[in-house]
Amino acid sequence: MLVRLAKLSCPGVNMERFAEEADVVIVGAGPAGLSAAIRLKQLAAEHGKDIRVCLVEKAAQIGAHTLSGACLDPAAFKELFPDWKEKGILYHEDGSVKGIATNDTTFERGLELHAKVTVFAEGCHGHLAKQLYKKFDLRASCDPQTYGIGLKEVGLDYQNPYLSPFREFQRWKHHPSIQPTLEGGKRIAYGARALNEGGLQSIPKLTFPGGLLIGCSPGFMNVPKIKGTHTAMKSGSLAAESIFNQLTSENLQSKTTGLHVTEYEDNLKKSWVWKELHAVRNIRPSCHGILGVYGGMIYTGIFYWIFRGMEPWTLKHK
């Protein structure tokens, strides 16, 4: 449903902004956002419900700035598409809804999207998520987030502020043991994106009135594996199931109050995502305490590979 909002006075030019009405808006069409949208539409079809979903992506098309070359852990993918091998081609459900306002383009006003629930799947450095952290104090009970820059998994914790990771990478490629492998090759593309590396200790509160966080917005990456796509997809699926349950079990007549889907965080903590992150929670912070890097490596070898994260303590990020 399109709703006209106030018109700005500008002689000879239509400056009206329209609002789109829907049930759920998802910001970011990465693995988590796509999984949430697909799972919502799957559930709607299974139960004969009409749930409108709007998936908003800042790029010109979905996947336009895909940089990850990671091998996908298929666990979440198999849950979302049990018959994916038989289907061959996958089709993404897309719709129109509410929750954000898109940027103005030249003299034309952007579009407002209104929804009962807004799902934020912006990735590591989403500017909307940063505003939500402050407004709802979502990081009050968690450790500070730590980051990697995505350039061969280099962390942003080196002490020399003048160090150029790109330059160091170029030097590495000229090493006598590496150069013969690359000689004669042609670089067809390059890029790097920031990564959340804080793990379990750095996950903020995931729900707030009118919305929730999924994927790399809160940060579900398994640091030792350097894999977060499968956990992001699972978080999207769990968010979709929780939203669906609340949308179909409540009287949703009010347009002035957003839904608070607390079930999502509870379900995530019961899932294999939380179990997987809990098992590796101490690996990253062990290298930044009194043990140092080498002590952290020894710690990881003993406590993770032998006890599989069952130690009764949790180390903190400094």
TrEMBL record:
Look up the EC number in the record and give it.
1.5.5.1
Q: Where is the FAD/NAD(P)-binding domain?
A: 23-124
One Gene Ontology cellular component: mitochondrial inner membrane
What detail does the entry give on cofactor binding?
Answer: Binds 1 [4Fe-4S] cluster.
Out of the domains of life, which is the source?
Eukaryota
Reaction catalysed by this enzyme:
a ubiquinone + reduced [electron-transfer flavoprotein] = a ubiquinol + oxidized [electron-transfer flavoprotein] + H(+)
* SUPFAM superfamilies in the cross-refs: FAD-linked reductases, C-terminal domain, FAD/NAD(P)-binding domain
* Domain spans labelled ETF-QO/FixC ubiquinone-binding: 154-195
Q: Which UniProt keywords apply?
A: Electron transport, FAD, Flavoprotein, Iron, Iron-sulfur, Membrane, Metal-binding, Oxidoreductase, Transmembrane, Transmembrane helix, Transport, Ubiquinone
Query: Membrane-spanning regions, if any?
Result: 289-307
Q: Which GO terms describe its molecular function?
A: 4 iron, 4 sulfur cluster binding; electron-transferring-flavoprotein dehydrogenase activity; metal ion binding
Cofactor(s) recorded in Swiss-Prot or TrEMBL: [4Fe-4S] cluster; FAD
Q: Give a short account of what the protein does.
A: Accepts electrons from ETF and reduces ubiquinone.
The name this protein goes by in its record: Electron transfer flavoprotein-ubiquinone oxidoreductase
The source organism is Neotoma lepida
